[in-house]
């Protein structure tokens, strides 16, 4: 309620009521001065207050009506600006606003339209730079392969190798307890099975990174379907894909999007402990909309407790921004993580 009273429309009404108050005070003072100084017969206290009351009532109604009507046009034009800014925020830089009036608001509208044109031009420049960057990446492919091998070696040592070592130690301890304490041995074997499953999940996530960065000439929908079919066969996670089959994007853009989705699925396999993953890729209002959701354990987005996860999210955000898009992530602990990406087409 207080927010509505602070709107433009009520500001106009308040200004009219303030003018009404000042006018009433001046008229009352003027009439009372005449009454005190000259005491004309036609001017009595009853006539003064009757006139002021009548004037106040009529002027109050007129102030409310005129204030409400006169602010309507301004409010409508400001609403156009609000919608335009929202469109710019969502990456739709083709939106424009036009006014027939020749005033300050129309001038601001023209400046906003010019800003949209410049932002659209910058998006095209970013996409062109992404194409150039892809060409440079191809020329430095050998160095990237070496770096990727080193990274995978570090990950294997830090995760899978350590887990397998722990499995070995727990298995040896269980073997020693089979005859002495079968209950303890059973509990230790259950830990062995759990650790082995975790190591298997880590390995699948690492193998996901070994897939080609390029789509090998395949369209994005076909490449993603093959990727998810492969993951369905190797994990217990249920994958649901909804994609616009008519999507047509530049090769470099498709490769970036494919790599972003690869990175997100790898994070889900390694950290989310999810049972279901939903992937939605649609085109809306000259932009590509990508939605990735899982029902995993979630995490606190505001902290840096998991450096590997943070690194993966940073990489996805950078790739999205290279295409002139926006990257948004929401995560609720014990409920899941949701990623929304918007890229201008």
Write the layout of secondary structure elements.
Layout: H1 2-5, H2 8-38, H3 45-89, H4 104-139, H5 141-177, H6 182-209, H7 220-234, E1 238-243, H8 251-272, E2 276-284, E3 287-294, H9 307-322, E4 326-332, E5 336-344
Parallel strand pairs: 1-2
Antiparallel strand pairs: 2-3, 3-5, 4-5
Would you write up a description of this structure?
The structure is a single chain. The chain has 345 residues and is α+β, with helices and mostly antiparallel strands. Among the domains are: 2-89, no CATH class; 140-210, Up-down Bundle (Single alpha-helices involved in coiled-coils or other helix-helix interfaces). The protein is built from nine helices and five strands. The chain has helices at residues 2-5, 8-38, 45-89, 104-139, 141-177, 182-209, 220-234, 251-272, 307-322, and strands at 238-243, 276-284, 287-294, 326-332, 336-344. The chain has a five-stranded mixed β-sheet with strand order 1-2-3-5-4, with helices on one face. The relative contact order is 0.07. The mean pLDDT is 79.
